Amino acid sequence: MVRLLWLLGCIDPDKYRDFKLVKRTQLSHNVAKFRFALPSPSSVLGLPIGQHIICRGTDSQGQELTKPYTPTTLDTDAGYFELVIKMYPQGRMSHHFREMKEGDYLSVKGQKGEFKYRPGDARAFGMLAGGSGITPMFQVARAILEDESDKTKLDLIYANVTVDDILLKEELDTLATKYYGRFKVYYVLEQPPEGWTGGVGFISKEMIEEHLPEPAFDIKILRCGPPAMNKAMAGHLEALGYESRAQFQF
Q: Which of the residues in the chain have pLDDT under 70?
């Protein structure tokens, strides 16, 4: 079914197409969820699991630019797709999204990305995410968990600076409750609030040992975060015995 939906998708890998912003929901002072309408209520984006789209916009100087984003929706969400965007003060593409109003159009092409997934590819996935790097993890987690025939287990460690920086927390907690025993999430904060019971500081080797599946032939590790974090995680994983072929970086 998913393969059929992909064939009927609305995006083109080589040609930009415009999609109308129909709803903008502010989630925090610098994060918003953007819902874009597809051509009809039954239309799907046509994005394979773990792939991303390329969005085109203009910066504060009027210069055109492009940037990849991973929708938080799947092709089971017909008629629309959604992006959760963290808008940074100096971010060039952040400016474009900050200025977008309902009724505006976003130019998109895709699909892009090297991640490929089929049910049964792994017994379990360990996931390491930082900041907005949660979006591909969330998309992959939803796709696996909502497929009743897929029994893959998922363990996620998600790092941020403050509790207000945690993207999609309500959605992640809902998945962890609904799919108890198949999906677990462990939050790590650099600046935790009083009474915080999650991890503190940066993701450590000890946290990975405790919260992710141990190295095995049928285990895969996904990671996505800022460059410094990705480099640190690669070092931790190598030291813990995870082979490079068992790792994928978005």
A: 1-8
